[in-house]
Each structure stands twice: as structure tokens, then as C-alpha cells.
Amino acid sequence: MTKPPLTLYLAAPRGFCAGVDRAIKIVEMALEKWGAPVYVRHEIVHNKFVVDRLRDMGAVFVEELDEAPTDRPVIFSAHGVPKSVPAEAERRNMVYVDATCPLVSKVHLEAERHHENGLQMIMIGHAGHPETIGTMGQLPEGEVLLVETVEDVAGLEVRDPGRLAYITQTTLSIDDTAAIVAALRERFPAINIPRKEDICYATTNRQGAVKALSDRIEALLVIGAPNSSNSRRLVEVGRAAGCRVAQLVQRATEIDWDSLQGVTAVGVAAGASAPEVLVDEVIAAFRERFDTTVELVETVKERVEFKVPRILREAAETP
Ligand code: SF4
Fold this sequence. Notes:
Layout: E1 5-12, H1 18-34, E2 38-41, H2 48-57, E3 59-62, E4 74-76, H3 84-91, E5 96-98, H4 102-116, E6 120-124, H5 130-136, E7 144-147, H6 150-154, E8 164-168, H7 174-187, H8 201-214, E9 219-223, H9 229-240, E10 245-249, E11 265-270, H10 276-289, E12 291-298, H11 310-313
Parallel strand pairs: 1-11, 1-12, 2-3, 2-4, 4-5, 6-7, 6-8, 9-10, 9-11
Helix pairs in contact: 4-5, 8-9
Iron/sulfur cluster (SF4) is lined by residues 17-20, 78, 101, 103-104, 170-171, 200, 202-203, 230, 272.
């Protein structure tokens, strides 16, 4: 039987960003340095495939520090942690490695700087996401107010409208965030504007790549986890750009083939925590069903790299 023709447009950049790459390397290097088990507080990055692989290598994933014994090293995930977490690790005399992405740490420092200057912070982010919890946890309770939508801005009760600054989660939708910032500036004209947006280069580039594909495709597949903020935003960007079908899939087995019937042009993107092997798997699944041509749509080349913490660059030693 002849297969129907289909073009797969591959978004580039896609998949791992420098922060995810560094966080995974930190767990691998910690296992090499200290042997198994090494404990990791929260999924190191939001991807089941990555987490399962590291678990097989000897990493133990826990949600809270008190689930880890004090005589084994513990790693904090790429999303960042409230200040209370490293403080508690120190109190318990634990060896810990912080895999917080340097671009998230930059937002933490920004929040602290504004706080020292007496400004109250407004954070644009998603309630309950570990990055939001970590960033808000850099300052004392009540010092960071969270807004998730334009509507939330109207309900804000601030200490002094003339002494405010805002920060954002790094993985938000650029367009939605711009609308919230506009509402904040309208309500609080004196609000301090960041020198550079907190939404990171990887989020920006992946959303730009999906937009660049969108006028060529009838359907978009985003490879990523349901709890991955930046992956979910890519699906929304695809929908907003007019893709009738925009699906988030963890891997090829989750593709809804019925929704792709009669389609001849499909875009494939991958969130910042999705490994390339899952993209290869999706391409192979298309090749089984369609006479597939793959075309790369590259909007920008990424050359960002982050060093791992010094403790892992030093010679092996036991904790
Ligand atoms: S998505 Fe951005 S902030 Fe998050 S880990 Fe990657 S580079 Fe860092």
C-alpha cells in the first residue's frame, strides 16, 4: 500500500536548553563522584524520560528534603528552590548541589536587589509551579505578590503603588506576559521595569521557532511533559498562530493519529526539557505511516552553555 505524502517541519531551536543540559550533567557527575544513591529534590527537569534514565543510574527523586537521608548528597532541581531549602540542608549538615538554572538565579538576585531597595515585588507566573515557589521564596512572605492573568492585576493590593517592581517566571508566553505587563504599567505607572525581560533565551527562541512554522503547517506536535511550563506555552503559541490541531505529546505513542487524517504538513517542536531521542522517535513513527519529507525551519542558532558548580569540578571525594 502506498503511504500518503507528508512534510514534517522541524522547529529549530527545539529541545534541551543550556539550563536543562547543565542540570542533567550535575546529576550524572554527582553519581560519578559520590556513587549511588544521590538524592534529587523534585524532578531535575520536567521530563519523565530524563527522570527515568537518571533513576536507573541511581538517582532517587524526592519532593522534600526530609525524605532524603543526611549522609547522602542532594541536588536541587533546575527550577530553583526557596531560600529555606538550602538553609535546611545546611542545618542538617548535608552535602548539596544546586542545579538551579543560572537564568532563574538571576531572577532571584533581581528580586533580592529590589527588596533591599525597599520595593515590593509583583511576580508574573503560574501558581504552584516550582519555579514560582522558588522565586517567591527568596523573599519574606508577603513581599512578592503573584499575578497569573491580566484580570489579576485589577485585584492587586499593594503596599505603596510608587514602590513596586515586577519579575517573571522564565518560561512564560511572551505575548501573554506582554499583555500583563501592559496592565501593570497602566495601573502602576511608576512600576520599576526590568532592564532585560526575565523570560529566558530558550523560551523566546522556541516560541519564535513555532511561530515561524505556523503558516506552513496544518497541525503542530509539541514534544514535552504535561507539567513542563515552556512546552505547554509552545502548544498555546501554535494555537494562537492558527494551528487547528496542536497536541502536547510525551512521546510517539501518545500521538492522536485520527486527528492527523488528511493532513499533509505537520510541525514538530520540543520543549526545553525534551531530549532529541524523542524527536527521532516521532519522526520514525511518521515514516511508518506516511511518505515523509523532513524540513528544518531554523530561526536562530543557540550557543549558550553553563558551567557545572565547582564542587563537581573538583577531584572525587566522599561526602
Ligand atoms: S528554560 Fe530557560 S530558565 Fe529554564 S532551564 Fe532552560 S535556559 Fe534555564
